[in-house]
Amino acid sequence: MIKPRTTPGVMELLPRDQIAFQRMLDVIRRNYERFGFLPVETPVFELSEVLLTKTGGETERQVYFVQSTGALANAAESDGSQPELALRFDLTVPLARYVAQHEHDLAFPFRRYQIQRVYRGERAQRGRFREFYQCDIDVIGKDTLSVRHDAEMPAVIHAVFSELGVGEFTIQLNNRKLLRGFFEGLGIAEGERQALVLREIDKLDKRGADAVRATLVGPDFGLADNVADRIMAFVQVRSNSHADALARLDALGSGNTTLAEGVAELREVIGLLKAQGVPETDYAVNFSIARGLDYYTGTVYETTLDAHPQIGSVCSGGRYENLASSYTKSRLPGVGISIGATRLFFQLREAGILSTAESSVDVMVGLMDEARLADSLDIARQLRGAGINAEVQMEAKKLAKQFQYADKAGIRFVVLYGEDEAARNVVTVKDLRAKEQFEVARDDLARTLRVEIEQQRAMGGV
Amino acid sequence: MIKPRTTPGVMELLPRDQIAFQRMLDVIRRNYERFGFLPVETPVFELSEVLLTKTGGETERQVYFVQSTGALANAAESDGSQPELALRFDLTVPLARYVAQHEHDLAFPFRRYQIQRVYRGERAQRGRFREFYQCDIDVIGKDTLSVRHDAEMPAVIHAVFSELGVGEFTIQLNNRKLLRGFFEGLGIAEGERQALVLREIDKLDKRGADAVRATLVGPDFGLADNVADRIMAFVQVRSNSHADALARLDALGSGNTTLAEGVAELREVIGLLKAQGVPETDYAVNFSIARGLDYYTGTVYETTLDAHPQIGSVCSGGRYENLASSYTKSRLPGVGISIGATRLFFQLREAGILSTAESSVDVMVGLMDEARLADSLDIARQLRGAGINAEVQMEAKKLAKQFQYADKAGIRFVVLYGEDEAARNVVTVKDLRAKEQFEVARDDLARTLRVEIEQQRAMGGV
Question: Which amino acids does the record list as binding L-histidine (chains A, B) (predicted)?
Fold first, then answer.
């Protein structure tokens, strides 16, 4: 006998939690489609040579390689070279490969969404997953891509998180050119040095302002006090309204060309956010946002839940200049965001924002009398025809047991049709949630429950 | 520069094909939920020790093992023992592990659906996939499970394939006890020998009746001519109506206990099929169906498309006596079916039953004049609010280019709002599918298109 268990670092849910998670994915997908993004799915494994274009990095140390039994046997006798296949570790590299491979069959700007699991060969620890969902959208241009597309991302974020019903949130915006220009203005012109300062600033929320300032004037950076002061004042800017955001940008002055470009881009993005009807309470400029990745070149985004800052960013992304330089000579600039749904789901549950769902089964048709099974099946058929998810008790077990099953499974309605009901051509409905019971004509059952269920759905969040 | 490509044996689709595939999965999922099945997802990899309980079989030769970079480095110096993780090769073993692991948290009978990809380390060849979707449902009982649940499976198959719109199909039913009883009556009583005969019979559609009969009277089996004749007559039975199915069962007589049990079970299943409203044209008994797997013990199913017999079974399954004997002492009988969606999708395309979908994007809001971008965004916001998928041209490129994009992307409606339209507070709508153009008041746009789109959806199949 083998102990049934999964490997650490993976998410496996009981059905009612899986339903809650699935609803979250459905909301994300529905909104991605609403904004005109097209579905793409890529294989879980890529050729290692294609996936691992940049060798020796953090990424490659975490990759999972895949080998069939045969390949494994051969490898044992071989030189220990890299296996042929590896699991994707994000959705960005597969997107780059996909766009380069299918370039001539795609219409640009190419708008795709992708909701799939990704894999990291990490040491298992709390909050770190070896397998987790990413939900990405990107717009990819051929040769050029207007900065206006950068304004679509926060509109999608707004639609998704509003429908998820996770309370107030703020989409925080910044621009890497603005950051670079600002640092150039302070004499921190060299790219590598800027990157190091940006990386420090990225730790602001975790380490606090004092610790970051101390590092900046300390031996590693050796910045003058007044320069450190200006940096610290700059990175603590958070706008509190649309007008304030524009004023904060104006206050930066024209400065150098890079700064001016960054300011102009961010101003355009914010203007288009307003034009899309995103409420000004839900976005802000935040000059400390740099995103750790060197990858981003313009607009950058993070999204935080106002009542739960400890969760950190629940949706991030930004603008990049060239998606697929490893695979094609075509210049493919893009902008995108990503929601790490597995981590988000756990965090929302821990924060008490999300709870176990009711069942996806709306109705259980109980069975009081073996002779009535055909009636039960017919009732279920009518319910299903009306778009109601229904299951049937196939055996006339004790009624208490049937109710116990429905209760444990989280099913809201139990429908009964016994001798008494048959005589009057009605069904008895027990609403286990409202703890009430009513009768309805057999022919009206589906219509009646349809109304109840739609009311419930209209009221529920995720 | 690295050539962008995928490994052979995987399915990767262009967006419009992905949309068609996604709709197929959505239909399957919706119908599984309609019949009260609950979602389960399991990790892509299982612990090898847990996954590979039966060693040395066909399965293990095809499994993909997974190793992180670190584990791979260690393995190179080690004894070459089996890697810790392996990719699932079906959804049945993960289900068994899941039910055994979470037994005390589940309500029985446990009804689950699972739609995920599975992996086989096969040599790549036409029609063989290394990665493919399986869409499974199973009902698992604790200790016992009424044969009545066997009748739910064909009802679900009927609902799924009706909505998929793949033309006429037949759900073929048989029962392993009926088969075993019949062979016992012919003196073929030994289990292993029965299994060999059943395996031959399973090849009936591929090899033809003459070849199978020749094998049965040949040196491997050595059956008498009259025994072979009775087998051949038996396995060519196909009922052509509900009454005929019952008559075919009656004609088998009572025979031995096993035969009688099988006949009684199949009779009950067929009776309940009728009670569920499945039309009698859509199911038949077929005594040749055995399913290759020794795993099944009672009812077995196959589903064929009437106009495309060459495709073979598009949905199969059956009843088994004990799901998880490797993991728990609890007796867990079950019944289930599986749709191999990836293979099915390719076959339906090859047979011309399924074609590339229109875009999931319903409307493109064109841009004739840079100054009207805010209007475009507002129009899109209203469309999205009405549940319409819309994208916006963010730059006022040449109109011909915008139309070219919409056409290539398969978007049905292009909406234009220029100076002329603004003056009259209308929008121009071009229906690229119907090749017609009309104007509508700006405030009525969403309502008008909603009606058009719902009509289209009501008419479309997948």
Answer: 90-92, 120, 134, 138, 291, 295-296
Give the list of residues 6+ apart from residue A11 with CB closer than 8 angstroms, or none. A129, A131, A132, A342, A345, A346, B43
Q: Which residue in chain B is spatially nearest to A325 when comparing CA positions?
A: B1
A 331-370 near B (Cβ less than 8 A): 359-361, 364
Q: CB contact, 8 Å: B220 with chain A?
A: no
Q: Which domain holds residue A62?
A: 46-87
Q: What span, in angstroms and rounded, lies between the C-alpha atoms of A83 and A394? A: 51
Domain assignment present for B73: no
CATH number, domain containing residue B216: 3.30.930.10
Total domain count, chain B: 2
For residues B307 and B411, membership in a common domain is answered with: no
For residues A148 and A230, membership in a common domain is answered with yes
**pLDDT tens digits along B78-98:** 566 789 999 999 999 999 999
Residue A121, pLDDT > 90, answer no
The reported pLDDT for the residue numbered B462 is 38
Q: How far is residue B188's CA from residue B181's CA, in Å, rounded to a whole number?
A: 9
Asked if pLDDT for residue A461 goes beyond 50, the answer is: no
In a domain, B122, yes or no: no
The CATH number for B446's domain is: 3.40.50.800
Same domain, A329 and A425: no
Q: What is the pLDDT of residues A124-168, one digit of tens each?
A: 676 789 999 999 999 999 999 999 999 999 999 999 999 999 999
Encode pLDDT of A430-452 as tens digits: 999 999 999 999 999 999 999 99
Q: Residue A79 — very low, low, confident or very high, per pLDDT cuts 50/70/90?
A: low
Chain A CB within 8 Å of residue B156 CB: no
Write the CA distances from A82 to A7, A61, A440, B297, integer angstroms: 24, 12, 67, 45
Residue A335 has pLDDT above 50, yes or no: yes
A208 and A243 in a single domain? The answer is yes
Domain boundary at B271, B290, B313, which?
Answer: B313
Mean pLDDT of A402-414: 95
Contact between residue B421 and residue B438 where contact means Cβ atoms under 8 Å apart = no
Cβ separation B15–A106 shorter than 8 A: yes
A67 and A128 fall within a common domain: no
Tell me the pLDDT of chain B averaged across its residues: 93
A339 part of a folded domain: yes
Instruction: Report the distance separating Cα B277 and Cα A392, nearest Å.
Output: 14
B258 is a domain residue: yes
Contact B107 A4 (CB under 8 A): no
Angle (CA) B445 B449 B454, round 5°: 155
**B397 and B267 share one domain:** no
Q: Are residues A212 and A273 in the same domain?
A: yes
